[in-house]
């Protein structure tokens, strides 16, 4: 795979009147909308893969009134972007879905679809097949464990250009709208959906964009490094070089942390004024860090909640990559 240098174009994205402007950005309107978001919304981004064979075929599907599906954006494998609905209009991408007390996420969320063939199966020739009969070489295949599945399987890789442009778009959306939640379709419809899957660095995206406004950001920035234990206050590595290695970092596994306090309360939000939620955590327990905000880490064990981040020691979990 040849890496296309999209740094420049990524940084020249802008939003005017709810429309994206920039290099390799086009607008192909979709009729599939239920009208404007209520005021204060959208506040959520949902990431998807198309499970399609090309950007144009997926855009055709989402702009045809018969199909009753749409998304705000589709991002191709060279980083090219197609907007189908302005960001102030409700699109139809989430379907039956739920997240933190909400149902039907379409009415809260911007939908971003990435051109990707999805989950693949190995054939006898050492190649990999998509559901629609596409054939992929091993260099374009990611082996990893899906968050909703018990064992590793094969996934079409995203390109670096695609990931970098997705990060740039989400960053811009966070600046223009009141975005506080970034989720995968697989998280809001776990019974039905597996997108964007383990090949997409979703936890990294969340930490980068939702956990980067306080001193906790230094910690978030360091989480992808190869050290086995990290403490707060290491030097930042917010560089282009780090951006380029996003996908590799994701392949090394999820960000995990070990509880360092004797007993650590789990709360429903990032602050001591939020109610305690479920059982406390104890020293040595391992959790997955989903995001960091205002000195608080949103962590997962069997359920999620917020704990004081200063009582966590971050570790890099060297989960299998291939
Ligand atoms: Zn989806």
Give a written overview of the molecule.
- It is an enzyme of class 3 (hydrolase).
- GO terms for molecular function: N-acetylmuramoyl-L-alanine amidase activity.
- Keywords: Cell wall biogenesis/degradation, Hydrolase.
- Residues 254-316 form the SH3b domain.
- It holds the Pfam family SH3_3.
- The chain is an alpha+beta fold and 322 residues long.
- The protein has 2 domains: 7-118 and 157-200, Lysozyme-like; 211-316, SH3 type barrels (Roll).
- Helix content is 19%, strand content 29%.
- It is built from 8 helices and 24 strands.
- The chain has helices at 7-11, 55-62, 160-176, 185-188, 202-210, 216-222, 240-244, 246-251; strands spanning 14-16, 19-21, 25-27, 33-36, 44-49, 73-75, 81-83, 89-91, 98-99, 102-103, 109-114, 119-122, 128-129, 135-136, 141-145, 152-156, 181-184, 255-259, 263-264, 281-282, 286-293, 296-300, 304-308, 312-316.
- The strands form 7 sheets. A 6-stranded mixed beta sheet has the order 3-7-6-11-5-17, with helices on both faces. A 5-stranded antiparallel beta sheet has the order 14-13-12-16-15, with no helix packed on it.
- A hairpin with a 3-residue loop joins β22 (296-300) and β23 (304-308).
- The chain is globular and about 55 Å long.
- The two termini are 18 Å apart.
- The relative contact order is 0.13.
- Mean pLDDT is 79; it is low at 1-10, 212-254 and 316-322.
- Zinc ion (ZN) binds at residues 48, 185, 193, 195.
């Amino acid at each position: 795979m040849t890496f296309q240098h999209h740094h420049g174009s990524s940084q020249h994205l802008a939003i005017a009147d709810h429309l994206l402007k920039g290099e390799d950005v086009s607008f192909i309107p979709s009729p599939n909308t239920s009208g404007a978001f209520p005021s204060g919304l959208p506040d959520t981004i949902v990431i998807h893969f198309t499970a399609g064979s090309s950007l144009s075929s997926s855009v055709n599907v989402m702009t045809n009134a018969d199909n009753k599906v749409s998304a705000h954006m589709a991002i191709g494998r060279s980083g090219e972007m197609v907007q189908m609905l302005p960001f102030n209009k409700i699109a139809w991408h989430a379907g039956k879905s739920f997240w933190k007390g909400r149902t039907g996420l379409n009415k809260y969320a911007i939908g971003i679809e990435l051109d990707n063939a999805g989950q693949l199966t190995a054939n006898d020739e050492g190649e990999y097949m998509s559901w629609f009969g596409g054939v992929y070489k091993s260099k374009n295949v990611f082996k990893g464990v899906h968050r909703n599945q018990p064992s590793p399987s094969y996934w079409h890789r995203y390109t670096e250009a695609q990931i970098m442009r997705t990060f740039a778009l989400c960053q811009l959306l966070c600046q223009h709208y009141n975005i506080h939640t970034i989720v995968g379709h697989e998280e809001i419809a776990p019974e039905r959906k597996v997108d964007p899957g383990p090949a997409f660095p979703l936890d990294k995206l969340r930490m980068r964009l939702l956990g980067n406004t306080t001193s906790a950001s230094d910690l978030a920035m360091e989480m992808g490094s190869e050290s086995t234990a990290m403490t707060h206050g290491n030097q930042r590595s917010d560089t282009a070089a780090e951006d380029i290695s996003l996908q590799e970092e994701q392949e090394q596994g999820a960000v995990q942390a070990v509880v360092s306090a004797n007993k650590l309360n789990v709360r429903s939000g990032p602050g001591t004024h939020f109610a305690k939620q479920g059982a406390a955590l104890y020293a040595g327990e391992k959790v997955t860090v989903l995001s960091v905000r205002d000195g608080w880490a949103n962590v997962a064990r069997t359920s999620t909640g917020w704990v004081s981040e200063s009582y966590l020691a971050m570790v890099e979990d060297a989960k299998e990559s291939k």
